[in-house]
Amino acid sequence: MFDSEVEARMDLYQRLLRSLPENSDGQRNLFLAYHEILAPSVDVPALLPEVWLHWDHRTVHQRGPEALLRSRMGFLLLLLPHGQRVVLEVDGSQHYTHDRGRTPDTAKYAAMVAADRDLKLREYEVFRFGHDELKLIEDARTLLQQFLPDLFRRFRVSRN
Questions:
Q1: How far apart are CA 1 and CA 47, in angstroms?
Q2: Greatest alpha-carbon span in the chain
Q3: Are 20 and 48 contacting, i.e. CB atoms less than 8 angstroms apart?
Q4: Is there a domain that residue 159 lies in?
Q5: Contact 129, 89 (CB under 8 A)
Q6: Domain for residue 134, yes or no?
Q7: Which H or E run includes 76?
Q8: Under 8 Å between Cβ of 130 and 143
Q9: N or C: which end of the chain has fewer CB within 10 A?
Q10: What is the total count of domains within the chain?
Q11: Full residue range of the structural domain in which residue 114 is found
Q12: DSSP codes, 82-141
């Protein structure tokens, strides 16, 4: 199908980029900056957006589309040594408010914290970013240039 590995990589990159929510500049900028920073490296953890921890169409059908929202990860990092699983989340105001960000919602915040605990019990490491930290691509680039080396050092990921 593809004439080269480079074409296959670019196709996958474009498909992953298209899977990002259109209403989250923070998620898009995290994805773009991650790949921009690590582009020269060959063996880096794959950054997969919008990954479901569990998907059961019957549950969604029976309980409604909101039933599994806490089962979706913003990003999952794969290929970490020793089988570690790292989740990167970008939290906008919808994670802790209602009325489009006007009113704090402690129940939403509690649900998010409960989802974090559940992921940690399933041996996922969760790192959260505020959407505003990543709103501009320049800010995302600066933040990830500081964060990624520390993350990779913690999980003993070498960049070739």
A1: 23
A2: 53
A3: no
A4: no
A5: yes
A6: yes
A7: strand 72-78
A8: no
A9: N
A10: 1
A11: 5-154
A12: GG-EEEEEEE-GGGTEETTTTEE-HHHHHHHHHHHHHHHHTTEEEEEEEGGGGSSHHHHH
Give the CA distances from residue 17 to residues 8, 13, 30, 63, 86, in Å, rounded to whole numbers and listed in that order: 14, 6, 11, 29, 19
In the 8-state DSSP scheme, what is residue 23? T
d(CA 55, CA 75): 16
Domain assignment present for 160: no
Parallel/antiparallel/unpaired status of strands 46-52 and 72-78: antiparallel
Q: What's the whole-model pTM score?
A: 0.83
User: Quick one: DSSP state of residue 19?
Assistant: T
Q: Could you give the C-alpha distances from 110 to 105, 120, 148, in angstroms and in order?
A: 9, 15, 28
Q: Which two tokens stand for residue 7?
A: 């074409």
Report whether 30 contacts 75 (CB < 8 A). yes
- The structure tokens listed for 102 are 């006007």
Q: Determine, yes or no, domain membership for 26.
A: yes
